[in-house]
Amino acid sequence: MSVWNQDRYIKAWNYASVAHNGQQIPGKEIPYINHIGLVAMEAMAAVAHDPIERPDLLVVCALLHDTIEDTTTSFADIEAAFGLDVAKGVMALSKDKTLPTKEAQMIDSLNRIRKEPKEIWMVKLSDRITNLQAPPHHWTKEKIAKYKNEAIVILEALGEANRYLADRLSLKIKEYQQYE
Length: 180
Prior knowledge:
Blueprint: H1 6-19, H2 33-49, H3 55-64, H4 67-70, H5 75-82, H6 84-92, H7 102-113, H8 118-131, H9 141-158, H10 163-176
Helix pairs in contact: 1-3, 2-3, 2-8, 3-6, 3-8, 5-6, 8-9, 8-10, 9-10
């Protein structure tokens, strides 16, 4: 096992910082880059607990996971800057917003993620762990329950990728039930 390449990590962090510049976490006055950093931290903790084959792919994709979905960044942009494997991973992690429902988008994304290396699965697990913090105050109990149930679907679909992240997500799901 090797660790991630620090120069690629810094390049991906700077790239994500520019791509997400000015964005905030919905419902909060926190810069969106905070979310990106938290996802990367979850991914790095997983590597520390459970060595994996391609930690560099994991960390770089964690840093870039929302660039295609939430910015003007394209697949070609990511491929040119970080290579095909990273671009494919980030694309798999991006919801297809042309699909009619959030449920259809989630199922499609999970199907695409499952075709990628386990490191990409781990990014999605890390992302949902990070997102299971206190929900925005304007969310209804129904929306909160639906979000928790999505987390269960993600865990069932991708949990086999990494025991540490699966255990963390399972714990976060249990803790999130307090908001229902």
